[in-house]
Specification:
Length: 130
């Protein structure tokens, strides 16, 4: 788990740095840094299940919003034939930007879920060992 969390900590810091030129960096830099900080703590063996749940809940609400909003993920998949979202770094259309943001949130949620379940399993193991 240590290597997993170091890798994702670095990826989230890099992702936060890329948000500097984004139209809404004040939203996305904290989102990615929250995940990076929790991964850093997990790499050090410190787990915070409540903070994982908080992040998962907030990210899930935002992901649902990005999925259903006009020019969101649903529109990208149905009206724009799942157009390539990785062809260029510049998001030339709103559905590409929202779809990329959605998948960024999905990755964050997945990592926080993995750390959450690992932390819970570790806590249960400690209780059994007592």
């Amino acid at each position: 788990m240590r290597i997993f969390n170091i890798i994702f900590c670095l990826l989230f810091v890099f992702s936060a740095a890329l948000q500097y030129n984004d139209p809404d960096p004040y939203v996305w830099i904290p989102i990615y840094m929250y995940g990076a900080i929790l991964c850093w703590f997990a790499a050090k063996g410190r787990y915070y299940p409540r903070l994982y749940l908080l992040g998962i809940a907030l990210y899930a609400v935002y992901a649902v919003y990005l999925f259903v909003e006009k020019d969101g993920v649903w529109d990208w998949a149905t009206e724009h034939n799942a157009e390539n979202i990785a062809g260029t770094m510049k998001a030339s259309t709103p559905w590409i930007e929202d779809t990329r943001e959605f998948f960024g949130l999905a990755i964050l949620i997945a990592v926080l879920l993995i750390d959450y379940f690992y932390a819970k399993r570790k806590m249960i193991s400690r209780e059994i060992a007592k």
